[in-house]
């Protein structure tokens, strides 16, 4: 009942970084919130952050090797650039849920394309930190 929750570049600065866009919760706040909800849902989360694209690819492979139920991932700006993350999503059988705090479609044109979104089982945007909880609930309910 393990769920990987992966976070990409600049999300280590959450809470300080453009709070008018991303909110005031830190990544640790979100991890705490997710841990509480996971316990209620009978799931276990492994939450991580890296600023490096290849590390996200490695962790997606690891999620499958560890038999995780799902990967919840906020790839940050790699969403809009990374064919490697799209390919990793296609390469693993583990379902991938894409989460964004903001709604990229309401922002600059260069954020409108999501490569990973082309293969993700579900995309959750514009719900702030709560989006991660919504993703976890989709796993628990069997929707994903
Ligand atoms: C983000 C949206 C991306 O466009 C941006 O590069 C981020 C955060 C979000 O959570 O809203 O780093 O993924």
TrEMBL record:
<feature type="active site" description="Proton acceptor">
    <location>
        <position position="22"/>
    </location>
</feature>
<dbReference type="InterPro" id="IPR036441">
    <property type="entry name" value="DHquinase_II_sf"/>
</dbReference>
<dbReference type="InterPro" id="IPR001874">
    <property type="entry name" value="DHquinase_II"/>
</dbReference>
<comment type="function">
    <text>Catalyzes a trans-dehydration via an enolate intermediate.</text>
</comment>
<dbReference type="Pfam" id="PF01220">
    <property type="entry name" value="DHquinase_II"/>
</dbReference>
<feature type="binding site">
    <location>
        <position position="80"/>
    </location>
    <ligand>
        <name>substrate</name>
    </ligand>
</feature>
<dbReference type="InterPro" id="IPR018509">
    <property type="entry name" value="DHquinase_II_CS"/>
</dbReference>
<feature type="binding site">
    <location>
        <position position="87"/>
    </location>
    <ligand>
        <name>substrate</name>
    </ligand>
</feature>
<comment type="pathway">
    <text>Metabolic intermediate biosynthesis; chorismate biosynthesis; chorismate from D-erythrose 4-phosphate and phosphoenolpyruvate: step 3/7.</text>
</comment>
<dbReference type="GO" id="GO:0003855">
    <property type="term" value="F:3-dehydroquinate dehydratase activity"/>
</dbReference>
<comment type="similarity">
    <text>Belongs to the type-II 3-dehydroquinase family.</text>
</comment>
<keyword id="KW-0456">Lyase</keyword>
<feature type="site" description="Transition state stabilizer">
    <location>
        <position position="17"/>
    </location>
</feature>
<feature type="binding site">
    <location>
        <begin position="101"/>
        <end position="102"/>
    </location>
    <ligand>
        <name>substrate</name>
    </ligand>
</feature>
<feature type="binding site">
    <location>
        <position position="74"/>
    </location>
    <ligand>
        <name>substrate</name>
    </ligand>
</feature>
<protein>
    <recommendedName>
        <fullName>3-dehydroquinate dehydratase</fullName>
        <ecNumber>4.2.1.10</ecNumber>
    </recommendedName>
</protein>
<comment type="subunit">
    <text>Homododecamer.</text>
</comment>
<keyword id="KW-0028">Amino-acid biosynthesis</keyword>
<feature type="active site" description="Proton donor">
    <location>
        <position position="100"/>
    </location>
</feature>
<keyword id="KW-0057">Aromatic amino acid biosynthesis</keyword>
<feature type="binding site">
    <location>
        <position position="111"/>
    </location>
    <ligand>
        <name>substrate</name>
    </ligand>
</feature>
């Amino acid at each position: 009942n393990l769920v990987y929750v992966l976070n990409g570049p600049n999300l280590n600065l959450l809470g300080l970084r453009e709070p008018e866009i991303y909110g005031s919760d830190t990544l640790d706040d979100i991890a705490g919130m997710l841990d509480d909800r996971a316990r209620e849902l009978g799931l276990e989360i492994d939450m991580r952050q890296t600023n490096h694209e290849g590390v996200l690819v490695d962790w997606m492979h690891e999620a499958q090797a560890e038999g995780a139920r799902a990967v919840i991932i906020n790839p940050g700006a790699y969403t809009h650039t990374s064919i490697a993350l799209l390919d990793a999503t296609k390469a693993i059988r583990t379902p991938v849920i894409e989460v964004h705090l903001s709604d990229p479609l309401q922002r600059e044109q260069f954020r409108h394309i999501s490569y990973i979104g082309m293969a993700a089982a579900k995309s959750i945007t514009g719900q702030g930190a709560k989006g991660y909880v919504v993703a976890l609930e989709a796993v628990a309910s069997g929707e994903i």
